[in-house]
Amino acid sequence: MDHAYTREKTIETPWRTAAVVAAGVAAVELFILIIMGVAFGAKLMSDHAQKAVISATTAAESTTSTPTGSKTETKTAQGTKTNAAPVAHLTRNKTSVVVLNGNGTPGAAAVSADRLRRFHYIIAATGNAPRSDFQRSLVMYRKGYEGEAIRLAHDLHLKRVTPLDGMSLRDLQGGHLALIIGG
Is the pTM value of this prediction over 0.90? Predict the structure, then answer.
């Protein structure tokens, strides 16, 4: 005799579906936490790097002088002398710049030189930097032209201005400043 098996309907919890959904939610949360960690870590590292550049620039400022041979000094109301910010003595159309490609991208120096010409700077030369691994662009200046370097950096929205480092006056080919294009 044949009996038909009838299955009673019971309340089932779809545990497999719940497990997959929970794993998906956990994966999304992990991804968000990693992105936040990278963002905050990058901000922290860039702050440390910026402080190091500022301290190096400040140290370099204390050893450099203006073209007349001395830093500009001002007197405060109490009579003490403080060092004022360097002032550019040359106009843009009298300031010559050597533009060097420091990121390895073909034509980067020429493009930047054209941009500088729009600001009326004199382009002394373009070429490749000694290295091609610069992460950020920077302006280097020869002794006495810090004010001009700061103005150029301001024009190009750059933060890094340093005295000549690893370059000689001969490398500047008579120019006052060197712009190294970074990545």
Answer: no
